[in-house]
Amino acid sequence: MYFEDYDNAGAPERTGDDVFSKPVRAGKRTYFFDVKATKGNDYYLTITESKRRIERDGRYVYDKHKIFLYKEDFEKFADGLQEVVNYIRERCPVTEAPVQNIEKQDTAAAEGPSFSNVEFEEL
Predict the structure, then answer these.
(1) The pTM is what?
(2) Residue 50 counted as domain residue
(3) CATH label of the domain that carries residue 16
(4) Count of domains forming the chain
(5) DSSP per residue, 42-91
(6) Rounded distance, CA 105 to CA 3, Å?
(7) H or E segment at 37?
(8) What is the pLDDT along the chain (123 residues), one digit of tens a residue?
(9) How far apart, in whole angstroms, are the C-alpha atoms of residue 16 and residue 11?
């Protein structure tokens, strides 16, 4: 059970036995890829997008959206997803900072600001 599920522990949304889970944190969202088993020991995949937001009273709540993907649809789903991802990558390349630069920025931030010695006469 995920930490944000404790608020909904009494909810009757139990759908299958958990077999394997892979959380993927991506910015403000977390994606959960969960393999579940039916009573007949047939596997299926649930993909859950979870996004934390703050209510007006200051409580944290989680918006969740779930997709159930059955093994007979895996290939068509994967093909469609790959086609759409390729389309987006060709037309709008990712412009993220390289990991090396992010690590340097984190290190610099941890060390504190760096100041150069400037004399007022120089200005």
Answers:
(1) 0.59
(2) yes
(3) 3.10.450.700
(4) 1
(5) -EEEEEEEEEEEE-TTS-EEEEEEEEEEEGGGHHHHHHHHHHHHHHHHHH
(6) 30
(7) strand 29-37
(8) 455 544 554 444 556 789 999 999 998 899 999 999 999 989 999 999 999 988 999 999 999 999 999 999 999 999 999 999 999 999 998 776 655 555 555 555 555 555 445 444 443
(9) 14
